[in-house]
Amino acid sequence: MRATTIHGTRDIRVSDVPDPTITAPTDAIVKIVAGCICGSDLWPYRGENDITPGDTIGHECVGVVEEVGADVTSFRPGDFVIVPFDHCDNTCAHCRAGAQSGCVNLGFTESGQAEYTLVTQAEGSLVKTDGMPDAAMVPSLLTLADVFPTGWHAAVSAGVRPGGTAVVVGDGAVGLFGVLAASLLGAERVVAMSRHEPRQAIARAFGATDVVAERDQAGVDAVLELTGGVGADSVLECVGTDQSMQTAFKIARPGSTVGFVGVPHGVELPLRRMFRGNIGLAGGMAPTRKYIPELLEKVLAGGIDPGLVFDLTVPLDDVAEGYRAMDERRATKVLVQP
Amino acid sequence: MRATTIHGTRDIRVSDVPDPTITAPTDAIVKIVAGCICGSDLWPYRGENDITPGDTIGHECVGVVEEVGADVTSFRPGDFVIVPFDHCDNTCAHCRAGAQSGCVNLGFTESGQAEYTLVTQAEGSLVKTDGMPDAAMVPSLLTLADVFPTGWHAAVSAGVRPGGTAVVVGDGAVGLFGVLAASLLGAERVVAMSRHEPRQAIARAFGATDVVAERDQAGVDAVLELTGGVGADSVLECVGTDQSMQTAFKIARPGSTVGFVGVPHGVELPLRRMFRGNIGLAGGMAPTRKYIPELLEKVLAGGIDPGLVFDLTVPLDDVAEGYRAMDERRATKVLVQP
């Protein structure tokens, strides 16, 4: 099949690779209808994570079931499915406790920007729609594979509650979904920290009541001013750098929680501040499967338009241009059409 | 007045120092009935915190109100009061949100092992009993100044819930109160990690269902075996060293929370593990005043004997021996009688 592969820093290609095959009874093969590029794909793209040249890349997709293993009984060829980027059996002790990203049979989508992908633990992981969705609905459904549940996880982990003030650090796609999640969870004030006008516009469409364009101490000061010096009730850290984490803890009020979902890179936690201020840290890799059913319901009910986050669509053959556009911040999130 | 002072590493004396005086209308002076030595007093005692030679030391006490400032209307001379080690106005935005240790008018008891102590923010901080308590009740009431609410805070921060498994790392007095708290909060299984027999006995009296005497990886393995490989639902980190924090995160199951109340010294958080396993960190300096009313009710109701933690009582003149006994682990917690 044709698949996106990475060969070095800023070296993304489309290559012929072997088709995925069923090797375990819990596997399924999905023919991809739409995939996309994740902010976390930019870490290896920029040379900040180790890679094996020629590896496939991409972990977000939706598609149609092509083939299932013997133990997969709830899905059959032809079903339209959302493929959570982290696969889980949804039956182990960790899954039953709602920690699906800690599943003892954890797996990952490894070719989400391709023609096909393998889903391990298909029975526990996949979520299907009733029949084939309209093409117009596909981008919104695609957000359920990772970015929407991840933003949701940031908000849930940060303890967003009706009436409070939530501040989102990071205006990548995950941060924007943090804004949407905080808004849906009832935060009275949702502050998006964003310098980029196109992203500010999406943030406002997703429910941001305020935008803070300043960064670092100026951004902290702006949030403190907005909150009468008190700080935020909940902070969603949606980047993963030390800079964003320090900002998050500076704007978090005493007794609050920073919900973090950005893969941490070079972060040193301000432990003394956490201790003195009773500011907790919660979150991590999202238990995607846990959230998909409720978020799918919200998507199908209408009233929100998560697909708005895709401001560029490229055919699979042009996926390298999609990476360039995201790397250069010309695009917020790029949909890849196989 | 006579007060305990610190002059250098392992150099504790009883000195004549100026009596505390009312300087703000929110102040009160309390004549101490009983004080005690805290595990955190051992950090400066052992030379691990900077000190100013001659400073008073000690922050846990109960006593009788001697004098109050003009703004203190709920207390009068003669009232028996519990003095939370961290003073708060209990009216600011942080206090109203339950984060009293982040109070904008935060203060601390600075001469808890002495004849008198100054309480800033007395109106918001003090909690009185109905009349003078029996002498036999004083040790239990004394635990409410710090160690009991701090153990309670560890359990609350770790999300201890009825039916779960709580593991307490650290068998100092705070850890023992973590055991008591987890038990009172309904944990089905309360595991005390303790090598010291006298402390194991107190842990069992406080509700520990299991004791793990092994440390480090052997201790982690023992807890994992006790929990069928799953790990603990809640972990109470009651020490503050890197060793105890690493142990805490290794025994915490995915999706759980480590509640920490030991002042961190040289701790490096395992952030990757926290991210991958969705293991949160919450807690910090206890909002003592928040918990005192409900814990006082439990103490007065009987059925628990928090005063059991004091296995040595010394007169103020012998306070240095009290420090030695705690430093050498000959005593779990030392009551100081002015």
UniProtKB/TrEMBL annotation, chains A, B:
PROSITE patterns in the record: ADH_ZINC (PS00059)
Cofactor: Zn(2+)
Keyword Zinc listed: yes
Enoyl reductase (ER) domain ranges (all copies): 8-336
Keywords, in A-Z order: Metal-binding, Oxidoreductase, Zinc
Gene3D superfamilies: Medium-chain alcohol dehydrogenases, catalytic domain (3.90.180.10), NAD(P)-binding Rossmann-like Domain (3.40.50.720)
Record carries keyword Iron: no
Taxonomy, superkingdom: Bacteria
CDD domains: FDH_like_ADH3
Family: Belongs to the zinc-containing alcohol dehydrogenase family.
The name this protein goes by in its record: Zinc-dependent alcohol dehydrogenase family protein
